[in-house]
Each structure stands twice: as C-alpha cells, then as structure tokens.
Design a protein that fits this description.
Largest sheet: 6 strands, antiparallel
Distance between the termini: 25 Å
CATH class: Mainly Beta
Structural class: mainly beta
Shape: globular
Strand content: 35-45%
Number of strands: 6
CATH superfamily: Golgi alpha-mannosidase II
Order of helices and strands: HEEEEEHE
Radius of gyration: 14 Å
Helix content: 10-25%
CATH topology: Immunoglobulin-like
C-alpha cells in the first residue's frame, strides 16, 4: 500500500467537519489499485452510515476488497459509494485496499 500513498493520485473525499467520516483515497497510476482511508473524530450516536463516493477508478471495472474478498463495480462505488466499516466510538479508522479484477 505504500506505493499507492507515495506515487498514487490523492482524492480528498470528505473533510473532518461534515457528518460523514473523513475519507481520503489514493489511486495507482494505472487505476489497478486504490486505497481508501477513513477516520472518525467523534461519536455519531444514532446517525446513519453515509457511503463515501470514490473517484479515479477505471469506469466499468470491478474491484475486489483485499481484506473481505467482496467485489464492487466501479460505477456503483462512484455513484452510490462505499460504506466504511468504522468501529463505534471516537477516533476509529479503517483502510480498504481495492484491487481491480482482470476480466478473463
């Protein structure tokens, strides 16, 4: 993941002052990988989870979450978003590593 942070394109998806978690996304030069970092600074008592819309992915491609194995379509990630699995409470964070699924 270090190569994505050092050499990838950075997208600031949401800032720390809104109702959403703070989210950053790094996308590799060829669009084959993405890293989404999410942070929450305070509690969200009873507020719904808001998906974070991703940017910079290859249109029409599918991406696999390296941790869970779930496959997501780039168009859905861009239009609807990705729900970040943040633990309840203050100062929670998560990292989601997405890898493009090559068509056979």
């Amino acid at each position: 993941m270090r190569h994505l942070v050092q050499h990838g394109e950075l997208f600031r998806l949401s800032g720390p002052l809104g109702e959403e978690p703070t989210a950053l996304q790094y996308v590799g030069e060829d669009g084959a990988e993405a890293l989404v970092l999410g942070f929450r600074y305070g509690p969200r008592h009873g507020l719904p989870r808001i998906p974070v819309r991703l940017r910079g992915l290859t249109p029409g491609a599918r991406y696999r979450d390296a941790r869970t194995g779930a496959v997501h379509h780039a168009n859905v990630l861009g239009d609807y978003g990705l729900r970040l699995d943040l633990a309840p409470g203050d100062w929670s964070s998560t990292a989601v590593h997405l890898v493009r699924v090559e068509e056979a």
